[in-house]
Amino acid sequence: MANSKRRTEFVCTSCHNVTPKWEGQCRGCSAWNTIIERSDSGRYGWLNSETSAAVHLAEASADEFLRLSLSSGEVNRVLGGGIVPGSLVLLAGDPGIGKSTLLLQVAAEVARTHSSVFYVTGEESVSQVKMRADRLAIEGRNLYILTQTNIEEVLARLDEQRPALAVIDSIQTMYDPSLSSQAGNVSQIRECARRLLEWGKSQNVPIILTGHVTKGGDIAGPRLLEHMVDAALYMEGDSVSSWRLLRAVKNRFGSTNEVGVLEMTGIGLRDVADPSESFLLDRPAGAMGSIVVPVLEGNRALLVEIQALTAPSTIPTPRRVATGYDSHRLLLVCSVAMRTCGIPLADYDVIVNVTGGLKIAEPAADLGVALAIASSFRSVPMPGDVAAIGEVGLSGEIRRAPQTDRRVKEAVRLGFRKCLVPGNTDDRADGTEKLHYQRVDTLAQAINMCLPITRQISDVVA
């Protein structure tokens, strides 16, 4: 009888040279640290390769998927309308961000509205999952908890149950006993993900994996993992804030430009119906160094408050501190303000904060940051009905931002009467919204327009 036990071999990721044991340097291409372990199972593809004929694209059918729709509109938005049967979804995020909470809520809903759901955990015991379920007011009917890390045992239980949805928390804890490496190893993660992908596609059962992230924010394990899955989602947020952003960096069944906004509450994650209004609820009226900036998160325009504080420095090198904003762009904005607008910040500490724990990565917030800094320095509050959009160039010019009309629409919806935009912005909004455009060409023009000096800077410092 043939031996069914799979062997292991070692393959170079650069030249694909195969060796019977691990070596530091590949004998084929002389590259260092490129040899990894893999299972010799007779095939190396992600899925079973079956002989099939080529299909003419013009004659191919585009059948619509019957998705598992969820009650959370924000999660549905990111997934493209719901969970596609047979899909493999990866959810990654920092520890404690709420991945397990979100998946337990999703699993409980699918179990309640469809059929059984398998929740496989390799990090918690059944009692720990039960405690979280009680906190989230989840009854748990048709929801089965399996504490197992052996991928063969997991697949055996899935074959017996044939659930409507399977959740693996997390892929880094799973291991294949045919491989000699430990769980969390690159080869283990890749092989376990491949076997789950193969089972899910063959049984038409969607599987959601959770993944750990490194200090740099990347998913721990091989980069190949993100290529294997059908959708890769990231959950972001600040540890001291209740807001959570769910964004798709890959989605074969929907757009990757969608972002869901959730709030962590005592009974779990809930949708934020109007994120812009929620982010501005605590904004004080007439505060110095405060301005509202419309930013884009995917296809969605959000209004966020940016605060700035300037204070005489007590150290030889003044500090430039940014929370939720790129520190390098803060240095750029401060330098341009000193050079082109004559604002003497050389002896002042400058602190910028994006409220709500959000993080802004686009340069379209530069103009708002500069105006907030000038407002704090001059001790003159910004007008409460003004928002600002634009990138600040090194010569003090205001450059265009993408999709300005969408940003202005969001500002107008929440009652802002003016929106500072670059002078060369295209006229794409209708007549009503164009009335709210206030065009500026330079940073100095924008500061003088919004922040007239009512008292001398020397008096403010004194």
Low-confidence stretches: 454-462
Helix proportion: 25-40%
Number of domains: 3
CATH superfamily of the largest domain: P-loop containing nucleotide triphosphate hydrolases
Kindly provide the name of the CATH class of the largest domain: Alpha Beta
* Strands, count: 21
N- to C-terminal separation? 93 Å
Which range does the strand content fall in?
A: 15-25%
Widest beta sheet: strand line-up: 6-5-7-8-4-9-10-11-12
CATH architecture of the largest domain: 3-Layer(aba) Sandwich
In this structure, how is the largest beta sheet organized? 9 strands, mixed
Radius of gyration: 27 Å
The secondary structure category is alpha/beta
In round numbers, the mean pLDDT is 86
What shape does the CA trace take? globular
Counting DSSP H or I runs of 4 or more residues, the number of helices is 13
CATH topology of the largest domain: Rossmann fold
Topology, please?
Layout: E1 7-12, E2 18-19, E3 35-40, H1 73-79, E4 88-93, H2 99-113, E5 117-121, H3 126-135, E6 143-147, H4 151-161, E7 165-169, H5 186-203, E8 207-211, H6 224-228, E9 231-237, E10 243-251, E11 259-265, E12 268-271, H7 275-279, E13 290-297, E14 300-312, E15 320-323, H8 327-341, E16 348-354, H9 366-378, E17 386-388, E18 391-392, E19 398-399, H10 404-413, E20 418-422, H11 431-434, E21 437-440, H12 443-450, H13 457-461
Parallel strand pairs: 4-8, 4-9, 5-6, 5-7, 7-8, 15-16, 17-20, 20-21
Antiparallel strand pairs: 1-2, 1-3, 9-10, 10-11, 11-12, 13-14, 14-16, 18-19
Helix pairs in contact: 8-9, 9-12
